């Protein structure tokens, strides 16, 4: 009796997954990673020059440690990515690098030197609506001083921000570090009746509205201070509900910048009126202006600007933003300003949440992706030089000589040269195309004739491409192109390493 036919499961097509990214998340290519690494190294060198040291905190924190980042404690996933562990404790992906630092300092307070100067970089996550230039995962690079109440610490942070931008390739005159003081805004809000805990939500709406001034302009901010605003997509944002006269008073603050620091400070003193807290903020700004001038940074690098407020509620004193001032073109060719790439301020209450006593702190954060995009626009060497060359590729001309080709690769690697042997199954033309796509500076070619003569052929792909472009009109066909063997030369196999090094040195490798 014949056995029943078994079903052939291979006849059933497997369901195909759709390759797609979650909204607000991006992949990064090798050139971007290389450029980012170069930029981070330059930032790190500047921070360390100022005496800051590295620290690293985890991606995940207890949700309650993030504090005021949570707009609604009954909905812990609002604004942050949160989940419960097996102990039913709420955990969240960090929203920024500041709140985790506050937790770290509080936890290690007795063993850390005070003031404690630290820097850290890493990914942060925001469960918000993504859009152009707005991501749910992005990298920040922070520097903070904890334990220094003097605004000299704030002035130093601003000067370090200026030095950092120049270190990565932003020219002096193409940026400005703008400084304000949250106490000044508190004073203005106090004078219009928005003091007290019961007005905390309205104050936060006002803060976030003013923080959008560079993006929305005065009319957009006026709408958000009033009844609300509908954006281009049709989404409606409820406003602070202030009457028109109070809106005018708030906007008077943002327009208080004068021709000089002293003129700005005088304007601010008039806007805050009789508010003691506002006057304290003006006095702190005056001290920062004096310190900046004494260090030589009042030459347009660091300025007092009342329009800077920063949208987060935890700031308690000086706040600052690093703004790029050069123009770029949008998709329709219209000139636009690049805007802010970094910001921060004083947050004297964050560590106190854990310790129950005041702990002064100040710091700033660089938006890594945004700064990298700016460096590409200005063609900073940090980015252009980081467009890393691919490895030297040893072609496989004879399949029975793979071990010999691999020995060549091993010699190159032992000399510190990035190298690989072609591992595919294609012929020479496809191998050359592969090397081009890898960005290889040169390839090593050895067929049976070269091997018998104890030689290798080295083709300089960069020089070859340049020569081909120069001769483009004079070469009749591809056969003539191949016959000319542009930028290709022979050397003894024992001189392989030295010859490859010469090619790399020729192109800055």
TrEMBL record:
What are the record keywords, sorted?
Aminoacyl-tRNA synthetase, ATP-binding, Cytoplasm, Ligase, Nucleotide-binding, Protein biosynthesis
Q: State the SUPFAM superfamilies in the record.
A: Class II aaRS ABD-related, Class II aaRS and biotin synthetases
Catalytic activity, EC: 6.1.1.21
Please give the chief subcellular localization of this protein.
Answer: cytoplasm
What's a single GO MF annotation on this record? histidine-tRNA ligase activity
Aminoacyl-transfer RNA synthetases class-II family profile domain boundaries: 38-391
First-level EC class = ligase
**NCBIfam families from the xrefs?**
hisS (TIGR00442)
Q: How does it assemble?
A: Homodimer.
Put simply, this protein is called Histidine--tRNA ligase
- Where does this protein come from, organism-wise? Chelatococcus albus
């Amino acid at each position: 009796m014949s056995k029943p036919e078994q079903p052939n499961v291979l006849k059933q097509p497997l369901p195909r997954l759709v390759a797609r990214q979650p909204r607000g998340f991006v992949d990064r290519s090798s050139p971007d990673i290389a450029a980012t690494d170069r930029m981070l190294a330059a930032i790190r060198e500047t921070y360390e020059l100022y005496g800051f040291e590295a620290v690293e905190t985890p991606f995940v924190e207890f949700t309650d440690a993030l504090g005021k980042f949570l707009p609604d404690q009954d909905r812990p996933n609002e604004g942050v990515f949160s989940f419960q562990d097996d102990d039913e404790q709420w955990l969240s992906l960090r929203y920024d690098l500041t709140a985790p630092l506050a937790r770290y300092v509080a936890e290690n307070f007795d063993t850390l030197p005070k003031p404690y100067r630290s820097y850290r970089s890493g990914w942060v996550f925001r469960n918000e609506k993504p859009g152009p230039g707005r991501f749910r995962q992005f990298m920040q690079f922070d520097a903070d001083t904890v334990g220094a109440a003097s605004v000299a610490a704030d002035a130093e942070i601003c000067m370090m921000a200026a030095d950092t931008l120049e270190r990565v390739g932003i020219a002096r005159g193409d940026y400005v570090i703008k400084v304000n003081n949250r106490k000044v805004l508190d004073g203005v809000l106090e004078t219009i009746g928005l003091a007290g805990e019961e007005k905390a939500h309205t104050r936060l709406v006002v803060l976030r509205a003013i923080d959008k001034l560079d993006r929305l302009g005065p009319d957009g901010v006026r709408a958000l201070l009033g009844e609300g605003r509908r954006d281009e997509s049709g989404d409606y944002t409820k406003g602070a509900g202030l009457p028109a006269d109070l809106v005018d008073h708030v906007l008077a603050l943002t327009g208080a910048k004068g021709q000089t620091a002293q003129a700005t400070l005088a304007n601010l003193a008039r806007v805050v009126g009789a508010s003691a807290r506002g006057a304290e903020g003006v006095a702190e700004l005056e001290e920062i202006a004096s310190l900046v001038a004494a260090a030589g940074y009042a030459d347009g690098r660091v300025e007092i600007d009342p329009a800077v407020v920063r949208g987060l509620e935890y700031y308690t004193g000086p706040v600052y933003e690093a703004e790029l001032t050069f123009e770029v073109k949008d998709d329709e060719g219209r000139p636009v300003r690049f805007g802010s790439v970094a910001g921060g301020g004083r947050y004297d209450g964050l560590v106190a949440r854990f310790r129950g006593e005041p702990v002064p702190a100040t710091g700033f954060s660089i938006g890594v992706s945004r700064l990298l995009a700016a460096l590409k626009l200005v063609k900073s060497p940090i980015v252009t030089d980081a467009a890393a060359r691919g490895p030297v590729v040893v072609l496989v001309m004879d399949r029975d000589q793979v071990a010999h080709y691999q020995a060549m690769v091993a010699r190159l690697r032992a000399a510190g040269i990035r190298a690989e042997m072609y591992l595919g199954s294609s012929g020479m033309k496809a191998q050359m195309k592969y090397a081009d796509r890898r960005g290889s500076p040169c390839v090593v070619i050895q067929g049976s004739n070269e091997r018998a003569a104890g030689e290798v052929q080295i083709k300089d792909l960069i020089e070859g491409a340049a020569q081909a472009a120069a001769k483009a009109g004079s070469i009749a066909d591809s056969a003539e192109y191949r016959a000319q063997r542009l930028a290709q030369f022979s050397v003894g196999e024992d001189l392989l390493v030295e010859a490859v090094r010469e090619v790399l040195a020729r192109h800055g490798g």
